[in-house]
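Sequence of Ribosomal protein L11 methyltransferase (Campylobacter canadensis).
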Amino acid sequence: MNKTYEELTIYTNNIEFLSDFVFSFEIDAIEEKNDCIVIRSDNSLNNLIFALNELKKRLEDNNINILINHKLEIKENKDWIDEYKQSIKAIAVDNVYIHTTWQEEKEGFINIKIDPALAFGSGHHESTNSCLRLIQKYCKDINSALDVGCGSGILSLLLAKQNIKVDACDTDELAIISTKNNFLLNKLEFNNIWQGSCDKAKNKYDLVIANIIFDVIMIIKQDLINALNKNGILILSGILIQYEERIKSQFLDFILLDEIKQGDWLSLVYRKKDE
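Predicted 3D structure, token representation.
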């Protein structure tokens, strides 16, 4: 064991987006907090810091409002992986219980096991939490679903637990690997999964979920709509409340069924009108 380790704290207003980005690097442990992500590693984090600076520059150039500030510290080593495991809390979202491989299942709940290389936080972020609640509420009479921007696959896993035929996609290859691993971990099967976005979907779905940032939703709006069956349900999440009027103005042709506001985040449920 090295005498010291590096601890990188990333302050952001979009924990989920940054977690997905950081997860694409070989990191020993990632801990999500309210306004930051804490990364600890026995190895140098210089490559990650360089990538964060490049990402920050790219976001600013495209006027995407995601805060990224970071602080690097060198700390005395100890058995911080075990300490980290002890700090992780399982989470219950209505009837769903999300836990790690080192935590026990909870009787009477839909149990979902997640262990993405010690990067745990699925369900804790407000937008994912809202999606989990909305899936449980609107999964009745749903036979097929597409999870756009699947990340670690937490939403796809819940859909599969409801005996729904699930397709998933993500532009990040590491997210695809993570989702596949988590399906194996839970002994579940998906119908199809691919690297890319919903424009590659070959089917139409009763339910389409996009838990991604506002700017990306706007870019792929028509692809999301095209992927919906007649009278299909569309769940949009990962939207900062400051964009509420702008996002709603883009879906006036849809029936707004529901909305959840948690913290700074907005989730919307639409039904495609009968054509």
